Structures are given as structure tokens and as C-alpha cells.
Amino acid sequence: MEGWKLKLRGNMAIDAQGHLHIAGNDTVDLARRFGTPLYIIDEDLVRDICRQYRQEFIEKAGGEVLYASKAFLTLAMCKLIQEEGLGLDVVSGGELFTALQAGFPSNRIYFHGNNKQPDELKLALQSRVGRIVIDNIREIDLVEQIAESENIRAQVLLRVTPGVEAHTHEYIKTGQIDSKFGFTVPNGDAMRALQYALTKSRLIVSGLHCHIGSQIFDMNSFGHAAGIMMQLLKDMKTQLAWEAQELNLGGGFGIFYADGDTPASIASYAEAVLQVVGQKSAELNLSRPKIIVEPGRSIIAEAGTTLYTIGSIKNIPGVRTYLAVDGGMTDNPRYALYKSRYEACIANKADQPAEELVTITGKCCESGDMLIWDIALPKAESGDLLAVACTGAYNYSMSMNYNRIGRPAVVLVKAGEADIIVERESYLDLIRNDRIPPRMQRQ
Fold this sequence. Notes:
The protein is an alpha/beta fold. 31% of the residues lie in helices and 24% in strands. It has helices at 27-34, 43-59, 75-83, 93-101, 118-126, 137-150, 189-197, 219-240, 266-283, 297-300, 334-338, 395-398, 427-430, 438-441; strands at residues 12-14, 20-22, 25-26, 38-42, 64-68, 87-90, 109-111, 131-134, 154-161, 183-184, 203-209, 246-248, 290-293, 304-316, 320-325, 344-346, 356-361, 370-377, 385-389, 409-414, 417-422. Helix 5 (118-126) crosses helix 6. It is globular and about 70 Å long. Mean pLDDT is 94; it is low at 168-175.
């Protein structure tokens, strides 16, 4: 069977024994030391991608790069992002608290979300975050009220939906008119929102934000969105005598998961955006705004690999062979949500030829608990290790305790070293917040 071999990403290699290595660590040894399922993060690959973004958008263009922390956030990840000179995009009080606990500079944090709660906004303002990205009229009033009570002024961006239909999964489109996010541009809501925000004495409106979706391969979509936003800035200057200092174009840059994915380079992404901004600034007689982008998936996804142990094997002659692993939708719900595709290999047989077409399923009591349909692999046996690639983004973030299954550990690997950055959840962790009412304990 052709085409089965795993694309080696970052610091992956296969040794003479046929074992998959990641950053100098034998995955067989990692499974023995830390157990499975196990999330493995290639630190140097994350740093390399951060540096590519920094070079293209900060060093060459004087812009800003914010890591979209919803993709994967831990204390250690905050430290890594800080060391690489990037800012942070957070979307909840929990993400903000994590960043603050890690010592991340608050002035480099941008706070997003379509329904921020008063306590979250209060924490953000008290912490002096760099920007609050306002998503709706209610938030204009809330931020004004809380800033008044704290006797400060808040720097904000207004999030708008530019009406761009990015070619991606329906659930991860965000820039089209019919979206829960932001002020709509084509119907005039964005203009009215700015006009209202400018009446607030505690708000400093620094610029605009938009985001057109995720896993986008067509760089023209980013260029088109930038063009629409620049025209909007011109209209706002003309009608309201306001000129933006910042233009945040969000994230969404697509990456390679499996055959058929055709990602561009980070350099071409930057060129597509910055060229349009430069041209439009000149054509429309606008001061060139500071350009901000918010990559998440493209920074962490390919650096992540999930390691499983294969358990039961069910062969239905003439129909299908199922390989069940010791994880599943609890550590990777993305197939159930998006029908996401992945590449994988048997980590302890990574040099062996494919012999069978199999389907990878999880251990949950749920028919929809699937990971990969119809993948060609070497002959598998119970106890073999399955490595699923490109699981750094949204897998840990979306993990859950369905069937009371604990979340896996996360290890950060570099140059032969492996360090736990998230401990495996124990049975005690699962019941830590449970309570039995006193009335049920009376006999």
C-alpha cells in the first residue's frame, strides 16, 4: 500500500529499530516513562514558527504578532511565547488568569470574546491589559462603566465582520455577515458602533479587528479582507474624522494535516496582507496602520503529536478492521466536530510497510468516537503505539472528561529532554469538585 508513511515534521526521525523519535526522544521510551495517551510538544518547532512570524510581521513590517492562546495554553506555553517576543490573544477570564499567573506582561495581552462577563472585564482592566477587543454595543457600555469605576482609560479595538466568505469549514468561518462575532460592515453597524464608542470618555479606540476564519489556504482571502478593512478605515476617517492607529487582521493561516492540504509559507501570508495595506494606504491617503496578526493553530499544531496504545482489534471480514486506542474523543474531539483529518503511524514500527487498511477508534461508549477512517498501516498488534501527528492545536484545549476519562499528560520535548508541563489527571482529580448534599448523607 502506497502513501501511508507519516510526513516527518519538525524534529521527527525514525531510528534503526524503526522507532519514531521526536526531538531526540524515542516515543517508545516516552510511553514507558509517562504513559499513554500522551501529548508531545516539539519545543524547537514551536520556537522556529514563532521566529518566522516575528521576522515577517515585526522585524520587517513593524507590526505585532499575538499568539491565539485558545489553540493551546498552559503556564509553560505562556513562558515560551513571552521568550519568543510575541504577544498573547486571550478570550476568557481563565485564559487571562493563566497568562497572568505565568507572569506574562499584561500590556502585551489582547482580550477577545463575544460575551465577556463583567468580572472578566474587571480583571482585564485591573490587570492593565494592552487592548480589549470590543465585540458588541453591550461591551462598549460595560467597558466604559468598569473603566469609570477603576478611574482609568481603556484602549480598545472594535471587532468587525467584513463579509468575507473564507473557504473553510462552516463552523470555523467568522468573517461572513451571518456571524455571532463583531459589528457587521455592509449594513453600517460598524460605522454606528465607532460613532457611539467615540462618545465614551473612558475609551481610547485604537483601531479595528477582524477575523475571517480558520485553516485558510487561499492567501487572496486575507488580501481581500485587508482591502475591505482599509476602505472601511477610509470611510471612517471621512465620516467621523477618526483615523486608526492599529489594524488587527486576526489569524486563520492554514497548515498541513494530511494529503490535500496546500499551505502557503508564512512569508507569502505576510506579503499578501502587507502589500494590500501598503497600496491602499497610498491610494486612500491614509496613514499606514500598525498591522497585527493572531496565529494560533499554525504556531502549535504541527509541533504536537498524540501517542496512544493500541488495545482491542476488531476485524469484520470484507467490511472493516477497527483499532481501538486508549484515548479518543476525550483528548481529540475535532473529528466529531469537524471531520478533521490526520496522519498517523505505528510508532514502534515506523519503518515497516503498510499491510492493512484500518480505522482508528477511541475507547468512549459512543459510536461517534472516531479518530481516523481508513488509514493504511503496518500490521498492528495489541500493545503497539500509535502516533497521531499535528495534534498540538485544539486537542488539549478541547479535551474533556466524557465517561469520566482523565485528560492526558503533556510533555515538552527538546534535544533529548522531556519535561511534564501538564500532569495526567487522576481519578481523584475527576471527583475533586464533586459534592454530596448533606441531606443525602443522613441515614
